[in-house]
Amino acid sequence: MAAYDSIVVGAGAAGLYAAFHAGRRGRRVLVLEHNGEPGAKIVISGGGRCNFTNLHAAPERFLSANPHFARSALARHTQADVIALVRKHGVAFNEKTLGQLFCEGPRSSRKIVRLLLDECAAAGVEVRTGVRVNAVRRSERFTVETSAGVFESETLTIATGGLSIPKLGASGFAFDIAAQFGLPVVRLRPGLVPLTFAEGDLSWMRPLSGVSADIAARAGKATFREAALFTHRGLSGPAILQVSSYWTPGETVVLDWLPDAADDILAARKRERPKAQLKSVLSELLSERLAAALAERLPQGAVGDMKDAALIEAARMLKNFRLTPVGTEGYAKAEVTVGGVDTNALSQQTMQARAAPGLFFIGEAVDVTGWLGGYNFQWAWSSGWAAGQAI
Q1: Cβ-contact 292, 283 below 8 angstroms
Q2: Rounded to 5 degrees, what are φ and ψ at 6?
Q3: Angle, nearest 10°, between helix axes 79-88 and 109-122?
Q4: CA triple 13-18-23, angle to 5 deg
Q5: Helix (H, G, I), strand (E, B), or coil: what is residue 226?
Q6: How confident is the model at residue 336 (pLDDT cuts 50, 70, 90)?
Q7: Helix, strand, or coil here: 315?
Q8: How far apart are CA 220 and CA 241, in angstroms?
Q9: Please, which residues have CB within 8 angstroms of residue 53's CB and are 6 or more apart in sequence?
Q10: What's the pLDDT score for residue 111?
Q11: Per-residue pLDDT reduced to its tens digit, 214-226
């Protein structure tokens, strides 16, 4: 039986980050990964360019049943620390929009994986891939039975992520281990995921598949101003992915198709072009196809023949356009899993399970979910760093 100080299960962003920080402390660390290669989700992230952090990462941009839990880790290991590490390895990057930092060049996400593996190697961390964990036991130390043999360690860190993107090997392993050791799990659901609609809505939405628009989308108390994209099953795009994490089944989402316009925008256009059809006026504000589709839900005719009050009401309808999704495209298309190991069961300083000393949970496995745009990577780095100081 091979013995280590620390075993980390999961060679993704959080797992590798925790491992090399522990290795730097002189700990003998083993990382086990069931995929054939480490960092599968890193490789595909950001269209292959890895949106590795966000300049505006802050606790209020993360969802959790305990919104204060993430504060400690995020404050002690920030985006500035991550940027410094990326620069140390000479990885070029740029800011895309809204503080999102991406690596430069196609397939450049692999440079982040390489960075993590190089740091692990420098810290003496052993990384084994293609190894499946079959069982975990704990007495004085942890015993991990795997397809490659049996290993034991003083600490065990679970960094296997959530249920999103099962084609990359996602599983409920972290939540099975949590249950084994008596840790509660906050209800799991897909996050940052396209929304789907019933046929009544799809009858007008489906012909718009591929059309995008700059909107403000709202679900609950959360509002996001970004692009929406029509799909053959409903709506996607950054604004929709963002609100999906806040949406609960049965609730409506509210879309503002004219986020930069006042309620009297159509009445004002009436003075300029009184003979124009409402559809034509809308096509000056929206794409022609979208304008035509939305105009079907508004009064017909020339704007000059309509009262200002009717035009103001039409604009308000476009700015408070209510839709009720019937669901999402599920974990197959979800970028993250909302929910996870209950943070009340963990130390916010170290990510250690209170009821099982030596057992740690980090990254997406924990009930901390960030916004779209590099926030979930920052949580992986921050939570991994916090655990890396203790394992």
Answers
A1: yes
A2: -140, 135
A3: 90
A4: 130
A5: strand
A6: very high
A7: helix
A8: 14
A9: 79, 82, 83, 101, 374, 377, 378, 381
A10: 98
A11: 999 999 999 999 9
* DSSP secondary structure letter of residue 371: P
- DSSP state string for 24-67: HTT--EEEEESSSSS-HHHHHGGGGT-EEEETT--GGGEE-SST
The sign one gets for the Cα dihedral 108, 87, 54, 249 is positive
Residue 1 scores a pLDDT above 90: no
The pTM of this model reads 0.96
Band (169; pLDDT cuts 50, 70, 90):
very high
In this prediction, residue 92 has a pLDDT band, given cuts at 50, 70 and 90, of very high
- Rounded to an integer, the average pLDDT of 125-134 is 98
Q: If you search the block for the tokens 């959790």, which residue do you land on? A: 64
Q: Any idea which residue has 């409903």 for tokens? A: 234
pLDDT value at residue 148? 98
Structure tokens at 176: 């099975």
Contact residues for 188 (Cβ-Cβ < 8 A; gap 6+) = 162, 163, 175, 337, 338, 339, 340
Q: In the numeric block, which tokens belong to residue 160? A: 């296997």
Q: Which residues contact 232 (CB under 8 A, 6 or more apart)?
A: 206, 209
